[in-house]
């Protein structure tokens, strides 16, 4: 099946600054695709080119088979958009915004009242936009992005600036959108968000895509290291751990051992070793690399720098 | 193309009325100026003096009307800058709303505001104004709306150039208020020094004042074709310029 979004060789400059360069990727039907990278990496520029809000200097983009810039109105009828740091009129009421948005689309829209109910905004329907909390504003923007029952939903830095609790609530909503079979294209600089939500991610840095894959495959490819930390009083333990295949390092301090090695089998091998030698442990945990580590390895610096 | 225009216009009207200070400043001040100055001038000047009756009978109503128009334009400049800075314009543009629909809604709101304020002034004037005024109100309203429509295009130009919302209102005031002084309202354009005379000729408000004074006195429209042409030219030039330089974000 044809991908829903196809981006190839896109370049966009602002004056002398190259915002994105040679960016290519595809988003498949029904997947949650994340563009991840630090602030200023070119995530929003890329997304706004795909949405038809900006015209790239070079390259080709197709969304649902349409050229987003030339067919922007046709496209906007079929997609839902949430923009980074957008606001509405301070004194617009929640229901007025939903009602206005619902009137803008040619095709049948979702029942606005039900949508507000699903997003937990029913008791805020008469509230002015300026009185909403950060989480409520974002939920309203999600409602506006979903009102036309879109085929593709764009979410730009959806949870930036939200407290952890609201963030989790929003994650559940995004998963719900994905489960309804919609294609979701999101950007985030939060690796945890990408890991929890995305089927596939593209890592972008200085306007270029560094790698694209599922979060798990990216971790396996770039960060095969596994670490097991355990505590035992057994004096023979160090010896036996060093004998496990693929173990590269065993560090021992008092009764705590840190075992480092490569590959998914490492943890199994350590457990097998413990059971075969009847080593009694009082603590056992694994430290697995995540997207954060992948980013560090690929770019040489942490995403927070 | 008009999809959403009426709904957006209606919402913008409600939003405008929900901001009590903004609504009072734009609607109340011209009406107050009209009433208070009318009382002061009517009381202090000898009723028989020709200057006083001309000022109260024509000058002040036209001055207050020009204020209504200028205030509507200033309010437009402020709102557009705030909407741009807050990302509201960008958010609206990322829908099937056409850009011109968004801006047209604001023009309609300002024209309605102008008409409503004028109506309020006429009603208040009937009750509290020192002299009875018999002006062709329908033609005068039309003339004021045409003038406002033309000057609103200058508002869009100012809103395009001013970088932040904080400066929008003061910059707009600095551009527009001096125009009132040169417009021939207080001193006839012909008696200005030559240099200022030349400036007054290119100030759009000069044509607004000439049109409004004429219609107020009962002139026929055909006597003011030049004013109408000048105001149309202002609209065409400023709209074309702001279409080039208008920024959505």
How would you describe what is shown here?
Chain A is of the alpha/beta class and about 300 residues long. Chain A has two domains: about 5-220, Rossmann fold; about 225-290, Malonyl-CoA ACP transacylase, ACP-binding (Alpha-Beta Plaits), CATH 3.30.70. In chain A, about 35% of the residues lie in helices and about 30% in strands. Chain A contains eleven helices and 13 strands. Chain A is elongated and about 75 Å long. With about 250 residues, chain B is an all-alpha fold. Chain B contains ten helices and no strands. Chain B has helices spanning about 5-15, 20-45, 50-85, 90-95, 100-130, 135-160, 165-180, 195-200, 205-215, 225-245. The two termini of chain B are about 20 Å apart. The mean pLDDT of chain B is about 90.
Features:
A: 305 residues; Rossmann fold; six-stranded mixed β-sheet; four-stranded antiparallel β-sheet; 11 helices; B: 249 residues; mainly alpha; 0% strand; globular
CATH C-level class of the largest domain in chain A: Alpha Beta
Gross morphology of chain B = globular
User: What is the spatial order of strands in the main beta sheet of chain A?
Assistant: 5-6-7-3-8-9
The CATH superfamily of the largest domain in chain A is: P-loop containing nucleotide triphosphate hydrolases
Structural category of chain A is alpha/beta
Shape-level CATH architecture of the largest domain in chain A: 3-Layer(aba) Sandwich
Return the domain count of chain B: 1
Indicate the mean pLDDT of chain A. 92
CATH topology of the largest domain in chain A: Rossmann fold
Specify the oligomeric state. Answer: heterodimer
Unreliable sequence segments of chain A: none
Helix percent band of chain A: 25-40%
Biggest chain pair interface = A-B, 24 and 22 residues
The chain-level mean pLDDT of chain B equals: 88
């Amino acid at each position: 099946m044809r991908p829903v979004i196809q981006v190839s060789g896109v370049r966009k400059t602002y004056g002398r600054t190259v915002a994105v360069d040679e960016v290519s990727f595809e988003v498949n039907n029904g997947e949650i695709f994340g563009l991840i990278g630090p602030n200023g990496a070119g995530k929003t520029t890329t997304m706004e080119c795909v949405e038809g809000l900006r015209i790239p200097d070079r390259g080709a983009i197709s969304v649902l088979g349409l050229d987003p810039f030339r067919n922007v109105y046709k496209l906007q009828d079929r997609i839902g958009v949430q923009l980074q740091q957008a606001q509405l009129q301070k004194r617009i009421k929640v229901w007025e915004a939903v009602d206005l948005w619902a009137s803008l689309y040619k095709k049948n829209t979702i029942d606005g009242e039900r949508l507000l109910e699903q997003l937990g905004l029913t008791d805020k329907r008469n509230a002015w936009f300026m009185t909403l909390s950060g989480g409520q504003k974002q939920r309203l923007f999600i409602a506006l992005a979903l009102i036309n029952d879109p085929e593709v939903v764009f979410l730009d830095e959806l949870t930036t600036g939200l407290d952890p609790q609201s963030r989790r609530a929003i994650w559940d909503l995004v998963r719900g959108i994905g489960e309804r079979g919609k294609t979701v294209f999101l950007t985030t600089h939060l690796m945890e968000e990408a890991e929890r939500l995305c089927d596939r991610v593209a890592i972008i840095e200085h306007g270029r895509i560094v790698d694209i894959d599922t979060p798990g495959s990216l971790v396996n490819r770039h960060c095969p290291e596994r670490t097991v930390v355990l505590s035992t009083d057994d004096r023979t333990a160090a010896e036996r751990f060093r004998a496990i295949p693929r173990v590269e390092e065993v560090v021992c301090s008092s009764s705590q051992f840190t075992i480092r090695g490569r590959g998914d089998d490492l943890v199994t091998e350590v457990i097998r070793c413990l059971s075969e030698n009847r080593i009694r442990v009082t603590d056992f945990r694994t430290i697995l690399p995540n997207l954060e580590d992948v980013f560090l390895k690929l770019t040489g610096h942490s995403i927070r720098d | 193309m008009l999809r959403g225009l009426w709904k957006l216009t209606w919402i913008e009207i409600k939003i405008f009325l929900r901001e009590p200070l903004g609504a009072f400043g734009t609607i109340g001040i011209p009406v107050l100026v009209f009433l208070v100055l009318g009382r002061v001038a009517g009381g202090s000047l000898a009723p028989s003096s020709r200057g006083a009756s001309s000022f109260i009978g024509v000058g002040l109503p036209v001055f207050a009307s020009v204020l209504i128009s200028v205030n509507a334009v200033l309010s437009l400049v402020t709102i557009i800058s705030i909407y741009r800075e807050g990302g509201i314009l960008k958010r609206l543009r990322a829908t099937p709303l056409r850009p011109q629909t968004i801006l047209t809604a604001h023009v309609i709101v300002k024209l309605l505001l102008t008409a409503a304020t004028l109506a309020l002034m006429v009603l208040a004037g009937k009750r509290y104004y020192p002299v009875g005024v018999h002006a062709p109100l329908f033609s005068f309203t039309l003339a004021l709306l045409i003038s406002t429509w033309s000057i609103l295009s200058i508002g869009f130009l100012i809103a395009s150039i001013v970088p932040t919302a904080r400066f929008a209102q003061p910059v707009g005031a600095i551009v527009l208020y001096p125009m009132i002084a040169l417009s021939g309202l207080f001193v006839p354009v012909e008696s200005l020094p030559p240099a200022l005379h030349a400036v007054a000729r290119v100030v759009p408000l000069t044509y607004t004042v000439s049109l409004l004074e004429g219609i107020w006195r009962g002139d026929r429209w055909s006597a003011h074709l030049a004013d109408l042409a000048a105001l149309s030219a202002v609209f065409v030039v400023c709209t074309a310029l702001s279409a080039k330089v208008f920024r959505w974000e």
